[in-house]
Amino acid sequence: MEVRALASDKKGVPDLKKGRFSVQVGAFSQKENADRLARDLTNQGHRADVMTHDRGDAVFFRVRVHGFTDLAEARRAEDRFRKGGYPGAMVVAE
């Protein structure tokens, strides 16, 4: 397990608006569908990949766009994806 230090202000309070964020654009039960979306997003210039999530009773393939270091930036990207046809897009802290 990776442990990272959080950015903090002068009083030592963590700044939760800075860090590593991604936008989950889709989740699929079939890997081929996730791979297709990740390829399309990559061809559009995004840093997209597929992450496998085993829920115990089912396996899902999550497509995430990476590279955001500021929560506001990730939220703007989330909004663009939602307006671009991915209504379930959501920001995820990495």
Automatic annotation (TrEMBL):
Q: Which Pfam families match?
A: SPOR (PF05036)
**Gene3D superfamilies hit by this protein:** Sporulation related repeat
SUPFAM superfamilies referenced in this protein's UniProt entry, alphabetically? Sporulation related repeat
Q: According to the UniProt entry, where is the signal peptide? A: none
- Tell me the protein's name: SPOR domain-containing protein
Per its UniProt entry, which superkingdom is the organism in?
Bacteria
InterPro entries tied to this protein: SPOR-like_dom, SPOR-like_sf
- UniProt-listed PROSITE patterns: SPOR
Domain SPOR: from-to ranges: 15-94
